Amino acid sequence: MDISKLPRSLMVEIGVIITHWAHIEQDMILHASALASKNTDGTPEEYLRMDFKRLREKWFDLCRANFSKGVMDKVVTPLNSRLAHLSKGRGTLAHGVWFVVGRGKYRVQYWEQKTSLERFYADVTAADIREISAVVVTLKEDFERFCSGKT
């Protein structure tokens, strides 16, 4: 598809999602690294540049080892659930190929390697993208607040 056919407002919302998610990933790398260094005298234990699911799981395990059950139950587990829930959709929006299927309606095509290479489609509306954008912005703010110790 000619990307110029996508409305600029849609591309802006996709950009907001991608940009805020990049902040989440970088904050997660920094936070996981800081938590891991507590047990390694500052020596990196492993490289944290990995797929998001594995990074999120590593971060969650490090939080579990470093925070009380109360903090885990009240803050970390809900954050982790929100991150897990939104990550697949974010990947689809960021890496899929977009098609206009009607006024304010889009189809995103993406591929996944399962037992074989499989093609999938996600149908979304402009309203869906605006809603996801708002949710990701809030999630980024909540995650940043936790990682900075302000929660």
Q: Could you give the count of β-strands? A: 3
Strand percent estimate: 15-25%
The residue-averaged pLDDT reads: 90
Parts with pLDDT < 50 across at least 5 consecutive residues? none
Shape: elongated
Could you state the order of secondary-structure elements as H and E?
HHHEEEH
Q: What spatial order of strands do you see in the largest sheet?
A: 1-2-3
Total of DSSP H or I helical runs spanning 4+ residues: 4
- How many angstroms separate the termini? 44 Å
For the biggest sheet, the summary is: 3 strands, antiparallel
- Name the structural class: alpha+beta
- Overall radius of gyration: 18 Å
- Relative helix content: 55-70%
Can you put this structure into words, describing what you see?
The structure is a single chain. This protein is α+β, with helices and mostly antiparallel strands and 151 residues long. Helices cover 62% and strands 16% of the residues. The chain contains four helices and three strands, in the order H-H-H-E-E-E-H. It has helices spanning 8-37, 52-66, 69-95, 126-147, and strands at 97-102, 105-113, 117-125. Strands 1-2-3 form a three-stranded antiparallel beta sheet. The longest helix is centred in the first third of the chain and has 30 residues, at 8-37. It is elongated. The mean pLDDT is 90.
